[in-house]
Amino acid sequence: MGARRTGRLGAGWQGRLGVVLLAGWTVLAAQAVPAAAQEPAPANALRVCTPGDYPPYSVTDGAGAYRGVDIDLARGFADVLRRPLVFVPLTWAGLKTDFAALHCDIAVGGISDQPARRAFADFSIVYGTDGKTPITRRESGTDYATIEQINRPEVRVIANRGGTNEEFARKNFPAAQLTVWPENLTIFDEIEQGRADVFVTDAVEGRYRVRQHPDLQVLHPDKPFDSFAKVLLVRKDDPVLATALNAWLATQLATGAVDRLFEQWIGPTASAN
Predict the structure, then answer these.
(1) With contact defined as beta carbons under 8 Å apart, do 136 and 143 qualify?
(2) 33, 70, 122, 126 — which has fewest CB within 10 A?
(3) What mean pLDDT is predicted for residues 202-221?
């Protein structure tokens, strides 16, 4: 399926890492949580912050219901911790300022490993990789397949505000006409309706979105413009939580559970919804 979910660690290393981390977490958790506690109180809820606008990682219906690869990972992790789960909305533009302010335990939603984000959060182990690739109308063919083709004064580029897509567009398409869109849920409609020519976003998202927008195409998703790691953010003051999350993710990677989640969303038998 191209660049998407192959982590930096091999399956053997993932398995061994999971065993080591799980052992360490068991000791730490035993020290931090009373042995008699069976059902955590609501005050002990795992606060999972997410923009909820980046399928297949995380998407919301607007009424507080979330679904996606990262959402399923968060639910599975909360189940392991035996803690109730609360999803907290935030924006990509506010990720830096709101992560601590909203008391996020973790943040999910297709988050890329960026050095600047280490200033306000710790990172989980890498659970996948992705890369930027163009989304255009099918009738455009390969007119916007390269950075050089896109970086022209007559080309209308669109990017969602505050995330790596906007950063990539500003860096690579200074000569193009750039529209910064306030969110990521309706941005594909702008291309489909001819109000923008191209949107450069994660290949995984492109693969998912073109199922919903048959007039659009994702160009060379197997050969994106770049490659970067996908991680979950963890609050800095909780090494027990970070150890537990890494142990659990390592196990999910080693058993192929993460790959199976992606296949449900963008595999050959996946539906548009």
Answers:
(1) yes
(2) 33
(3) 94
- Which residue type is seen at 95? L
115/140 same-domain check: no
For residue 15, the one-letter residue type is G
CA–CA separation, 102 and 85 (whole Å)? 15
Buried b (16+ CB within 10 A) or exposed e, 188-220: bebbbeeebbbbbbbbbbbbbbbbebeebbbbe
> Distance between CA 255 and CA 252 in Å, rounded?
5
Closest CA to 267 of 188, 204, 219: 204
Question: What would the two tokens of residue 212 be?
Answer: 């919903």
Closest by alpha carbon to 111, among 98, 100, 124? Answer: 124
32 and 101 assigned to the same domain: yes
Phi-psi region of 178 (alpha: psi -120 to 50; beta: other; left: phi over 0): beta
Q: Are residue 75 and residue 29 in the same domain, yes or no?
A: yes
Rounded to whole angstroms, how far apart are CA atoms 67 and 55? 8
How long a stretch of residues is the chain? 273
Q: 45: domain CATH number?
A: 3.40.190.10
Give yes or no: residues 202 and 240 share one domain.
no
pLDDT digits (tens, 9 = 90+) for 79-129: 999 999 999 999 999 999 999 999 999 999 999 998 999 999 999 999 999
Residues 64 and 185 in one domain: no
Burial status of residue 64 (CB atoms within 10 A of its CB: 0-12, 13-18, 19 or more): exposed
Is 273 a domain residue?
no
Whether the predicted model's global pTM rises above the 0.70 cut? yes
